[in-house]
Amino acid sequence: MKRFDEILHNGYSQSFDITRIIFHEKTEHQELVIFETPTFGRVMALDNIVQVTTRDEHVYHEMLTHVPLLAKGNVKDVLIIGGGDGGILRETLRHASVQHATLVELDRAVVDLSLEHFPDISNGAFSDPRTDLIITDGVKFVAETDKRFDVVIVDSTDPVGPGEVLFTESFYADCHRCLKEGGVLVTQNGVPFFQGDEVTNTYQRMAKSFADNSFYTAVVPTYIGGFMTLGWASDDAGLRHVDVETLRARFAAAQIKCRYYTPDLHKAAFALPQFILDLMRK
Ligand code: SAM
């Protein structure tokens, strides 16, 4: 049986049995492979790094979407940077309050191949009338747009290759510019046990533009190395501390059924282990 070895971390990797390779080509921007596995269903990797699997995608997509949208409440305009598989877009559109979801993806091939080979992940979200799909570099979009958003969600690859620009101080400053007053920025921020510098760098870079920034955590089995950090930034420090009764009420009113997210977990996710607190203050 063939295997896929992800070698994101020096000297430590995860390996998948492959039952079938569905697609493997270099797009205009990155190497894209899609394959079937007995354990994690269908998997997509970009430049050898696992992006999404049909077995555990809901964890990441629920936590990166419902935490900011329920903390903020009554969110109307959402900007998604990256996210070409459509998972964040799907979860965003489950909120009836959302009127516009703008998804800015660099690589058209990721969208097209996700629609073809992972239709359940986007689950029709790309054809929702509230969706505006823009194929361009996220850095360019946030620097130039005159639109304003309640929430910006950066569902990027890791800070290597095309995703690297989405971890810079100037990018976070432009995200701040695109947010309405009191809006929230959340980001994919790696696995701190192996990518501790991403915590240190993101914390320092976001703090240059936002009054309040920190992280929250989620456990995604195929983002190996323990839990992952999700970056959080807003000028409204209260949004990180919304009480669990309010979260429970908003979650119940939204009538969204999740497999990972709960209001109590939302609250607990912001309690960080000491090593992450130490990385933030390095
Ligand atoms: N959930 C995954 C993770 O946590 O690593 C990310 C999945 S999503 C497929 C990542 C997307 O970011 C890819 O489709 C990639 O093309 C896109 N991307 C990378 N750099 C980008 C950029 N500069 N602007 C817009 N999209 C970008």
From TrEMBL:
A Gene Ontology cellular-component term: cytosol
UniProt-annotated binding residues for spermidine: H61, D85, D155, S156, T157, D158
Domain of life, source organism: Bacteria
Signal sequence residues: none
PANTHER family cross-referenced by the UniProt entry: SPERMIDINE SYNTHASE, SPERMIDINE/SPERMINE SYNTHASE
Subunit structure: Homodimer or homotetramer.
Family, similarity comment: Belongs to the spermidine/spermine synthase family.
Official protein name in the record: Polyamine aminopropyltransferase
